Amino acid sequence: MVRQAKAQRILTHDQIWGALDRLAERAGLSPSGLAKRAGLDPTTFNKSKRVTPDGRERWPSTESIAKALAAAGSSMDTFAGLTGDDASDGRSVPLLGLALAGASGAFDESGFPSGKGWTELAFPTAEDSRAFALEISGDALAPAYRDGDVILISPRAPIRRGDRVVVKTKAGEVTVATLKRRTAKALELQPLDASQAEHTMAPSDVGWIARIVWASQ
């Protein structure tokens, strides 16, 4: 009996480059920005480098793809998913435990996930390409959030009084609270436990602030 070989999917030139473009977008970067973060020449992933002057297709090396994945904190499985025609729907976001969010290197200067420790979580509702998720551990934020809850943070979402936010200070402290007031001189936060006193900090002490747009409750 002759067995038919299972047909293997062959990735095209456009799919590979498209996946790199999506990888950069998910990291909040341009293709050149991703290449620079990966320690490559900034022009490595530029569109002008994808075809030779005589019209031949030029493919990215496996080494450059590996470095790009490391720079974006993504896996090869994630990259494979980005090669599909339907891969631009933002089906996953970076995920980290809240207890690790204050660690040095967990975020870059703009508040985007970086470094080690991040995994990925399927999230069809994530519209912000820079969105990320934090998993609550312990009961410090109860009853608002309990151990194991996941909160989705959108850095691009507008923030208004009364919104629940995540704030990271320049010193590395991460706070989850309700925004009471925000002025040019002060940021006033109400702890999720209403029995606790309000907290005020100077804008100069704030590394970044982002709104919580969803929670798995």
UniProtKB/TrEMBL annotation:
Residues 94-213 form the Peptidase S24/S26A/S26B/S26C domain. Residues 33-58 are annotated as: Disordered. InterPro entries: LexA-like (IPR039418), LexA/Signal_pep-like_sf (IPR036286), Peptidase_S24_S26A/B/C (IPR015927). Gene3D superfamilies: Umud Fragment, subunit A. This is Helix-turn-helix transcriptional regulator.
